[in-house]
Design brief:
Elements (H helix, E strand, L loop, with lengths): L2 H13 L12 H16 L12 H9 L4
Helix pairs in contact: 1-2
Length: 68
């Protein structure tokens, strides 16, 4: 999986509220941009996804895409 796709997968998980935080106001594009910026930080190692705090569904999503 190349870097851009991996960041996109992480951002989709953020938008699904599996981990990270979402922006509550603004347009969909603004919320997506916020998620992508967070995803880039996770991808680059500035933040980590804590597997102990994931729901079962979120854990399966992360395992499927090898995020943890």
């Amino acid at each position: 999986m190349n870097n851009i796709i991996k960041i996109d997968v992480i951002a989709q998980g953020i938008m699904a509220k599996y981990y990270g935080s979402t922006q509550n106001c603004g347009t969909h594009f603004q919320r997506w941009t916020y998620a992508v910026l967070q995803a880039r930080d996770i991808f680059e190692g500035r933040f980590k996804i804590d597997k102990d705090e994931l729901s079962e569904e979120a854990y399966k999503y992360c395992k499927k895409y090898e995020l943890i």
